[in-house]
Amino acid sequence: MSRLVVVSNRLADPRKTAAGGLAVALAEVLSNTGGLWFGWSGKIVEAADGGVAGEGAMHTQQAGPVKLVTVDLSREDHNSFYLGYSNGVLWPVFHYRLDLADFDAGYIAGYRRVNQLFARKLAPMLREDDIIWIHDYHLIPLAAELRALGCNQRIGFFLHIPLPPPLILAAIPGHDWLIRALFAYDVVGFQSKSDHSHFCEYVQTEAHAQNLGEGRWRAFNRTVQAGAFPIGIDVDEFNTLTEAPEGREMYERMKREYSRRKLLVGVDRLDYSKGLPQRMRAFRELLARNPETHNSATLIQIASPSREDVSAYSDILHELESLCGSINGNFGELDWMPVRYMHRTVARARLPGLYRASSVALVTPLRDGMNLVAKEFIASQNPENPGVLVLSRFAGAAEQLPEALLVNPYDTEGTASSINMALQMPLEERRERYEALMKTIRRYDVHWWCDTFLDTLAKAKAEETGTPWLRL
Ligand code: GDG
Which of 63, 56, 113, 57 is nearest to 84 (CA)? Predict the structure, then answer.
């Protein structure tokens, strides 16, 4: 069996349960093949301490059968690669937010420099029959850089975030370079059919690629296989967490604390793509229009801190804080706070209990690759008395989960009425929806995702081996 090499910007120690379903699933396949996981160490080295652009010390750690190898980044590289191009250009544009993109010309050089650094460090560790799986928008050109160093292994790429339509993508200076870089992969995976169709449209119209059928495209002397591989969660892990003492304790505490209330829950990284201010406005509308929700509906919103060194994130923090304050100020009573907002990370073991104690989950991103919270909420429900998922039609998950109450998060009144419908939904309908949702979530779980992607990569036609890669 070939060894699996996973490359992602950040790594998680697969032995720790806090690592989450994705890390656990990757760890499983990595363990089976005695694999290697490579990425950034999380450490930034200042120029005064010898941090030089394009250079970084390496660290190796053994986690059971899995080898974790990481590299440090200089402050200059972190600024242009991570804060600049990855999170200041690609993240907003791929989430359709051209207004938030900062197209500083210097960023792309840093982005390329770090991808070259990763390639230079990784290439000598590779074996001829390794299978390499590269993750997410930080590392789009990594395969091209590896190919330029003579690596002919199978290489797959998975984009965790959405891919926008060609005209939005085309706003990125260097968009043609980015998409050309995708042709260095053997397989490119997207979260949804709609992301995949944007890729097809782009390569057809902008790159004049030849459609070879069955998802295969030929351009730049290379053939790439593209498809949708919607990511899932580890349903069994969630069931175990729900039944574990910490999960049960959390559930019972919430039930006790809110015995006279109807709990709504939101769990998100504090990111502008998650539509948090829009969600708060919809909740305010619900309270304004439905007096019977007063003294009852209580929204617990966890907004875990994220990328606080990117400026667009502090704006969203202030907007959210002010909305929560005004809702509590205008509607709250001495013994009832409509919104409980926490700008903190909650321990992973407690999430299932919180989800299970809630009657409604609000998962209303403006745009999201998939959104795992939607799936985690359903997986944690009591089948006899399940809660209702209110889901944005703009989350990748909506394609797979039409039995949720789908909403347009930009439509405040429409979202408020759907939340009200969710709060009042009869048990029989809740059960029907839950069963249909659960069936999909179980069938397309994280193991299905891993296996299907790696199987496609293993079977991708290897006719390109040895073709000289057009230098970027
Ligand atoms: C990207 C794409 C795609 C959140 N707050 C806490 C916490 N979380 C956990 C959730 C969930 C995960 O983080 C978030 O996953 P999402 O899918 O919602 O979103 P992103 O972080 O934006 O991830 C996304 C995903 O990649 C996978 O491909 O679905 O579309 O944007 O697991 O539970 N976990 C803990 N405490 C928190 O406070 N422990």
Answer: 113
The structure tokens 């690609």 sit at: 90
CB atoms within 10 A of CB 57: 13
**Tokens for 201?**
């449209």
Q: Which helix (H) or strand (E) holds 432?
A: helix 427-443
Report which of 217, 132, 224, 150 is spatially closest to residue 185, judged by C-alpha positions: 224
Q: Which residues line ligand 1 (CB under 6 A)?
A: 20, 160-161, 231, 267, 269, 302, 304, 345-348, 351, 368-373, 376
Separation of alpha carbons 387 and 382, rounded Å: 8
pLDDT tens across 4-30, in order? 999 999 987 766 655 555 777 787 788
pLDDT tens sequence across 155-202: 999 999 999 999 999 999 889 999 999 999 999 999 999 999 999 999
Please confirm, yes or no, whether 160 is among the known catalytic residues: yes
Ligand 1 atom index nearest CA of 274? 22
- Domains of the chain by start residue, with CATH: 4-232+448-459 (3.40.50.2000), 235-442 (3.40.50.2000)
